[in-house]
Design brief:
- It is built from 8 helices and 5 strands; from the N terminus they run βαβαααβαβααβα.
- The protein has helices at 24-35, 42-50, 54-60, 63-77, 95-104, 114-121, 136-151, 165-183, and strands at 13-17, 38-41, 83-86, 107-111, 156-159.
């Protein structure tokens, strides 16, 4: 008898990176379902482990403490199998974290325009500490420009803008199969 986890799939560990608001959480959940894997959103995982929201962590402990938590929890989760991990927008900026994830399995970078990102994150005011203050669109553009070269290190890149999640997931699965064939 064949075990459920023995189904053909292109990967048993996938991480999603990209700027805030590109759809990592939504796409990650649906990708995990499509691949029959578990799903973890790193920000929600940190919130559950600390008992604090991300804005509270930034406010009370600072960004540096938050980045250290991200790094430690990615190190822990990268040892798991059967997992789709949606990273926070800045997680992939840490060299050790980036190296660990690139060595662990396929990393998929999701992309959207700064305008689309602003539109998406504006739906949840107060939840994005890095965008607080004036001129959030300019801040998005600046941060995205700083982070883009590092996001480009991911082997798979998919645009989420103007597309249904199902369509994005189908493209990711196709790209994961191509990645698996190149690595075989």
């Amino acid at each position: 008898m064949r075990r459920v986890l023995d189904i053909p799939r292109p990967a048993t560990f996938v991480s999603l990176t990209g700027f805030m608001g590109v759809g990592k959480s939504r796409i990650g959940r649906e990708l995990a379902q499509a691949l029959m894997l578990h799903f973890i959103d790193l920000d929600r995982y940190i919130e559950r482990r600390t008992g604090l929201s991300i804005p509270e962590i930034f406010r009370h402990l600072g960004e540096r403490a938050f980045r250290q938590m991200e790094k430690e929890m990615v190190a822990e989760l990268a040892n798991k199998d059967f997992l789709v991990l949606a990273l926070g927008g800045g997680s992939f900026m840490d060299p050790e974290t980036r190296s660990r994830l690139l060595a662990r399995g396929p990393v998929v970078a999701l992309w959207a325009s700064p305008e689309t990102i602003l539109e998406r994150v504006a739906r949840k005011p107060g939840q994005r500490p890095l965008l607080e203050g004036e001129e959030p669109l300019e801040r998005i553009r600046r941060l995205l420009k700083e982070r883009e070269p590092l996001y480009r290190e991911a082997p798979i890149h998919v645009l989420t803008e103007g597309r249904r999640p199902k369509e994005v997931v189908e493209e990711i699965v196709q790209e994961l199969w191509k990645y698996a064939r190149r690595r075989a």
